[in-house]
Amino acid sequence: MLAVAAATCGIAMGLSPLLQLRRVTVRRSSADVSLAYLGVLFVGFVLWLSYGVAIANAPLIVSNLVALTTNALTIAAVLRFRAA
Q1: What one-character-per-residue DSSP string does 2-55 give?
Q2: Of 6, 36, 75, 81, which has the most beta carbons under 10 Å away?
Q3: CA-CA distance, 12 to 67, in Å (whole number)?
Q4: Which H or E run contains 77?
């Protein structure tokens, strides 16, 4: 039961960058977003995903794959609006 709860929270946390992505796209500006912070998170997600793959832990893989994907989308949007 604890594993299910932890995996569920991990996925919810992984989806949290979508809140920032929504704010950036609605405002059409990424001026108040720290790209360095998102970069640190990205590296962390890659490391945890790698660890999950190395130990074949599906909940760790899934939650960090979700987090990595949403973070990458957010970084892409931030870079897009910085270039505009």
Answers
A1: HHHHHHHHHHHHHHTHHHHHHHHHHHT--TT--HHHHHHHHHHHHHHHHHHHHT
A2: 75
A3: 9
A4: helix 58-83
User: For the CA atoms of 21, 23, 28, 31, what is the dihedral angle to 10 degrees?
Assistant: -90
User: Whole-number mean pLDDT of the chain?
Assistant: 93
> Amino acid identity of 20?
Q
Query: What is the tens place of the pLDDT at every residue in 14-24?
Result: 999 999 999 99
CA 76 – CA 50 distance, rounded (Å)? 22
For 71-83, letters b (16+ CB in 10 Å) and e give beebbebbeebee
Q: pLDDT band at 4, cuts 50/70/90?
A: confident
